[in-house]
Amino acid sequence: MNAQQHQSLVKYDNPVLVSTTKSKGKKKGKLPPVDNQQLTQTEDILNSILPPREWTAEGQLWVQYVSSTPATRLDVINLQEQLDHKLQTRQARETGICPIREELYAQCFDELIRQVTINCAERGLLLLRVRDEIRMTIAAYQTLYESSIAFGMRKALMAEQKKAEMEATIKRLQAERSDMERQVEMLTQKIDQIETREAERQELDEKKHSDEVAYLKNLNDTLKRNLESLLAAPKK
């Protein structure tokens, strides 16, 4: 049994040594007197609400039952002081999720159930139902929280994977764009070269055509003059 179990806020009786056969029973099989039947019934209810603690030390089995001693106003004040002291010494967080604070407040609530049960068993059993319902609700919220965390992690991993894929796609498209830009530049240079050659060829053709037209025009003029000379010459 560890030290924190001994330091529980729930009030227990002194530990009792039992046989090695692990035979339980605080009264060791003896029937309670008629006058103590009410006390025995209260103890049974307390043991059902807060089961006895068992541990083995040096080969001997020890059992410790929850105390059936009624609580006084001073006990409640001491319980509050112990709760505050343990919250401080164990450095429990004041806000947010804190297992230490949850454990200490659970012990405090169990001790309050014990005190109420001694005075009124029915009220104690009703508080037990409230405690179990709260624990069940907290467990459901915890399961939902863990599921949401797992869902968030999966979504985050998917987003990271999608991000990596998108980055790879962007790099590939950028490389394709650069290659296409180089191709466009090369084709533009080829177009400029073709246009330059075509302009030069067209200029040469126009010059050649102009030269031919001029030559033919001169030839035509020469022939025309010769013909006119022949026609103008006197006949013999």
Question: Which terms would index this structure?
Answer:
5 helices; single chain; 236 residues; three-stranded antiparallel beta sheet; mainly alpha; rod-shaped
Folded structure, characterized:
A three-stranded antiparallel sheet has the order 1-3-2, with no helix packed on it. The N and C termini lie far apart (162 Å). The model is unreliable at 21-35 (pLDDT under 50). A hairpin with a 2-residue loop joins strand 2 and strand 3 (60-64). With 236 residues, it is mainly α. It has helices spanning 3-6, 37-49, 73-89, 99-119, 121-232; strands at residues 16-18, 53-57, 60-64. Helix 4 runs antiparallel to helix 5 (121-232). It is built from five helices and three strands; from the N terminus they run αβαββααα.
